[in-house]
Amino acid sequence: MAKEMGSVPSQTGAVTIPTAITAPRYSEWRRIARVFFGRKLSLIGFVLVMIWIVVAIFAPLIAPYDPLETHAKDTLAHPSAKYWLGTDSTGRDTFSRIVYGARTSLLIGFSAVFSSALVGTIMGLAAAYFGGWVFTIIMRITDALMALPGIILVLLIAGLAGGGIPVVIFALGFGGIAMQCRLMCGQSLSVKQNDYVMAARAIGMSNWRIMLTQIFPNAFPPLIVGITMGLGGVVLGEAGLSYLGIGVMPPTPSWGGMVNVGQGYLFSNPELSLAPGAALMTLVFGFNMAGDGLRDAIDPRLRGAF
């Protein structure tokens, strides 16, 4: 209840004057945060993601060795106090490479997802607001992109361009444009029918100003969910490309590449594949759980379901 009525006696004592007691009001973002952190899996996912972000930022302080430094006398060493997760076939410290590999995965993940979200948002806003031939052209472009399986499109781009971090970012980002465009277009189509958008158009506000100040802020929350859940898929996609040898090129640390190299020593040195695989699993799990919790927190129909 937003207000409760009380009564205050007048100075004469004969008439009572009703007073309003206003209950504290909470912002929508505080409600979303309360629901999000109230779910255990969402909280676990958020903590896992934050741990890996901290590891990536402070990699030089956490890693005991340079990830490219070789130790010729300690090749294929087993885990010990000197090398916590052993060394690979060239004597590079596995733990240090996993720590720096987090930088590679997060750099590619955030860059690819945000670039696809930026392009997809602009295309979706324009298609929904202008309609007509603009809508038709943009939707046919997204139909063409979605007609090809995403993994085939990414493999084609990365294979033709020859691999490398910039190529992987472009390939994964390009592959995600269609989904982001569809999501923003659908949200914008419903938002633009509201009265405040019609009022802004009636007072002479420019089209781009209406899109950026009236439609985009109200259509943005579902896009946050798409970005968060898309991060896990992009990180996994980068690992897959690196595993196949058309992603991040060695000797740059990459979890997918480390799994590929370590599979040849799976029986003698299983940690070479299992350790980077476990790191990849925890990061992707964290993004997926955080995305699920954020979706439930933003959707009013799911806020009460714990």
Can you give a write-up of this model?
The protein is mostly helical and 306 residues long. It has one domain: MetI-like (MetI-like fold), CATH 1.10.3720. Helices cover 67% and strands 5% of the residues. Strands 1-2 form a two-stranded antiparallel ribbon. A hairpin with a 6-residue loop joins strand 1 and strand 2 (16-22). Helix 1 (28-37) crosses helix 12, helix 7 crosses helix 10 (207-244) and helix 11 runs antiparallel to helix 12. It is elongated. The two termini are 23 Å apart. Mean pLDDT is 84; it is low at 1-8 and 20-24.
- What's the total number of strands? 2
What is the name of the CATH topology?
MetI-like fold
Distinct helical segment count: 12
What structural category characterises the helix and strand content?
Answer: mainly alpha
The gross shape turns out to be elongated
Instruction: State the CATH superfamily name.
Output: MetI-like
Under the CATH scheme, which architecture would be assigned? Orthogonal Bundle
**Count of discrete domains:** 1
What distance lies between the first and last C-alpha atoms, to the nearest angstrom?
Answer: 23 Å
Helix content: 55-70%
> If you average the pLDDT, what whole number results?
84
Report the sheet with the most strands, covering strand number, pairing sense and barrel closure: 2 strands, antiparallel
Look at the structure and give the CATH class. Answer: Mainly Alpha
Order of helices and strands: EEHHHHHHHHHHHH
Q: Note poorly predicted spans.
A: 1-8, 20-24
Spatial order of strands in the largest sheet: 1-2
Strand content: under 5%
* Radius of gyration, taken over Cα atoms and rounded to an integer in Å: 26 Å
